Amino acid sequence: MKPDFGQDLSLVHLILNASIPVQIVMALLLAASLMSWWYIFIKLFALKRAMRITERFEREFWGGGDINAMYQRISAERDAAGEMERIFEAGFREFMKLRRQAGVSINVVIDGTRRAMRATYQRELDGLESHLAFLATVGSVSPYVGLFGTVWGIMIAFMGLSSVAQATLAQVAPGIAEALIATAMGLFAAIPAVIGYNRYTHDIDRLANRMESFMEEFSNILQRQATKPA
Amino acid sequence: MIDAADAPHLARPGTSIAAGVLALGVHAAFLLLLVVGVSWQTEHPAPVMVDLWEALPAEPSPPPVADPRPQPEPPPMPEPVRQVPPPPPPVAKEVPAPKAPDIALEKKKAEQEKKKAEAARLEKLKAMQAAEDKALADAARIEAEAMKRAQEKQLAEKKKRELLRQMEEDELMQKMAAEDAASEARHVRQAEARALAGQRQAAVAKTIGQYRDMISAAVRGNTRLPDDLKGNPEVRFWVRLLPTGEVTDIKLTKSSGNAAYDDAVERAIRKSSPLPLPADAEAKRAFVPELSFVHRPKE
Questions:
Q1: Is the interface score ipTM higher than 0.85?
Q2: What is the chain B residue with the closest CA to A131?
Q3: B214 close to B230: Cβ distance less than 8 angstroms
């Protein structure tokens, strides 16, 4: 790199020579970008796993497996279980407990079971949706933050221009270039965050639909079993 | 009583380390792409040499008014104009050409004359010597020797004189040649200047013609012909222009016979302001400050 014209437009040089507010904005955006990518990957893995386990559980459940055996297995390894498995486990445990108590009507048993399942469903959904708000925030705010850095940098560049007699493009170009890096960083942070947010909300919605359907269907199955003369 | 098994399951931390590494990897890859992929301009293009020709007519810059004809490619245009000074034009060479043989002839004639004179002199000398010899043979030997010495002296003197004359002649010849060369050079220079002036005039005339056409085209484009116009009548205007081409004053000098058409052309001239003007100062003189404008509705 030759120092001709007294200007070096390399990326590192531009960032290091930026004014302090622009540098702060850039650091903020870098942190936001790192965090959002981190969450993007966490969510990616978590949702993939949830899908996989849900798929496996549904196949097992509707494949005519022994419900008692499934319940035993899932309650033995609750930490490794999937969301739908935990809903099933909570509902079945409640059902068993209520069945064991004498003098409880079927309606009460089924209502209790559904409540237990819904509580677990809410908790699981909350776990799935965690961090999505952060992605949404980064996606909507970081372009503005980057724009703020750019405007600030351009302001500084033009202020510097006011003190020279003959204004040339070469005097503002580095300032504008460094300022525009802030916008680029903002967009770099925002675009994946928005894409990730949209993708994951869609995936979670589908999972939630499946879980709700399962809850209804499982309640029906339990009701049928309860009304059957034992 | 609360059963421990009834406690809700709490979300475990996800696979955060792998995700963190991946996030860092994405950023590193992007940074690498920026640093390697985007060529941040650190090298400047080599400077370009530009020749400025003050005296020669510059190629007229593309006019702001749309020219219907495709511009003749600009690069070959200035070539012949620019190349004029180094090689002397053929006209200049032909002027001194008939002169050169004249000089040569003169030179040859002089040489021949000189040779002839010398030959005659030699013959004379020989004859004299023979006669003297004969006389001497009769005379005494001592006398003969003296005579011979004297003769020799005379001969030497004569030779010397001859040499001197030749030298003089040579000098004269050289002087003449130099004069001839000088006059020749002067002629060449004059012819060159004439040719250059002629070329320049031609270029200026060409530029003027071009811009006349351009102005006509511009005005024609802005003219709304009246419906009752018949034929291709000529109308003349006297137009006063600012150096920038702005029209300041228009006067009708010769009507076409159709007042509506005259008015339409006048409006068109005003609408075409500023008129396209050549950049060359000499060519511009044909348009600024006054322009006699001849216009026909059709080409």
A1: no
A2: B14
A3: no
